[in-house]
UniProtKB/TrEMBL annotation:
It is found in: Cytoplasm. Residues 262-337 form the tRNA-specific 2-thiouridylase MnmA-like C-terminal domain. Its EC number is 2.8.1.13. Belongs to the MnmA/TRMU family. Residues 192-253 form the tRNA-specific 2-thiouridylase MnmA-like central domain. The record marks H113, Q321 as: Interaction with tRNA. PANTHER family: MITOCHONDRIAL TRNA-SPECIFIC 2-THIOURIDYLASE 1, TRNA 5-METHYLAMINOMETHYL-2-THIOURIDYLATE -METHYLTRANSFERASE. This is tRNA-specific 2-thiouridylase MnmA. The active site is at C88, C184.
Length: 343
């Protein structure tokens, strides 16, 4: 019987993933990654017990603090837009589950992501494919994960919709009480979370020509592309175009200035060779749930940065945010949006 290490939070997705794997004949080892002091280990144990599975707990609080929480804070300090869930998959969850393969003498790792793993003969490797549930599918969050992990990865929920999983898990006695929060370490909102780390200070809203149009109490409270909540009355709607943390300045302007048909990407993690990527129809997705946009050309620029020209404009590609690359439904990799020449 083949053994599977399953990332197990105890929530409905990991619970039903464990059930599918067990019913498929795998020896399932649910692993709870303790990331926060208040992580609910007891609830996860109860969830595993419903399936008569023993729960293994791995404490990764220090690693999570360094790789995800500190990264989140540092990016906002620099006026960037972080993507903690994507980075967590890359540097914590799948990384450490994969490491456990040898230690536990297991054959595969698994998670409750709504995505698929498929072997693509054309590229002679396993790649991630979009899941069945287009409203929920989570392939985007796997863009930064090393491709070698996909060779050992099982994603059973890729063939289900969220509604199907909820219904089937309830039938098995799972006490579903609603979805978990988006960012696991933030209880209220990101601004309140950041206040102990970034001092509030009066700053200015300015147009691109330097004209002052208002005041604010901290650049970190805003993100590129934001319109609502600026508190500025002006002759036309204003959008955040740029953050200048050194000067505590938020640059604003009309909507057409946040629309871009060229973006720059660095820290790129390709799942196939770049030369092969240039030969297939390519699309980018600049944030979770945004519509894919066709790439008209991509070329290496400099300093590890790629220049990506798009067939249509995208709204507010924010520096720091993750950009995922696809050909049709296949995920080919991802990287971080940056400014031209900034690496």
């Amino acid at each position: 019987m083949k053994k599977v290490i399953l990332g197990f939070s105890g929530g409905i997705d990991s619970f039903y993933t464990a059930y599918i794997l067990k019913e498929s004949g795998y020896n399932v080892l649910p692993v709870f990654l303790k990331l926060l002091p208040n992580s609910n280990v007891e609830e996860a144990k109860k969830s595993a017990e419903l399936l008569n599975l023993p729960l293994k707990v791995v404490d990764l609080q220090k690693e999570f603090r360094k790789e995800v929480i500190d990264y989140f804070i540092s990016y906002y300090k620099k006026g960037l837009t972080p993507n903690p869930c994507t980075v967590c998959n890359q540097k914590i969850k799948l990384k450490y589950l994969y490491r456990l393969l040898e230690e536990t003498n297991s054959n595969f790792v698994s998670t409750g992501h709504y995505a698929k793993v498929t072997y693509v003969r054309k590229f002679k490797r396993h790649l991630i494919k979009r899941g069945k549930d287009r409203r929920k599918e989570q392939s985007y969050f796997l863009a930064l994960v090393e491709q070698k992990i996909f060779e050992k990865l099982l994603l059973p929920l890729g063939d289900y919709t969220k509604e199907e999983v909820i219904e089937k898990a309830k039938e098995l006695g799972f006490p579903f009480e609603g979805e978990s929060q988006d960012v696991c370490f933030i209880d209220s909102n990101y601004v309140d979370f950041l206040k102990p780390y970034i001092k509030e200070k009066e700053g200015k809203f300015v147009l691109e020509d330097g004209t002052v149009v208002g005041k604010h109490t901290g650049f970190f409270k805003f993100t590129v592309g934001q319109r609502r909540g600026l508190g500025i009355s002006y002759k036309y709607p204003l959008y955040v175009l740029e953050l200048r943390p050194e000067e505590n300045i938020v640059v604003v302007g009309p909507k057409d200035r946040v629309l871009k048909n060229e973006i720059f990407i660095w820290k790129v993690n390709w799942h196939i060779d770049f030369q092969r990527i240039r030969k297939v129809p390519l699309f980018v997705q600049i944030r979770y749930r945004s519509k894919p946009t066709r790439v008209s050309s991509i070329e290496y620029f400099k300093n590890g940065i790629y220049r990506v020209k798009l067939a249509a404009k995208v709204e507010a590609p924010a520096p720091g945010q993750v950009c995922a690359f696809y050909t049709n439904d296949l995920l080919l990799g991802g990287g971080e949006i940056t400014k031209e020449g900034v690496g």
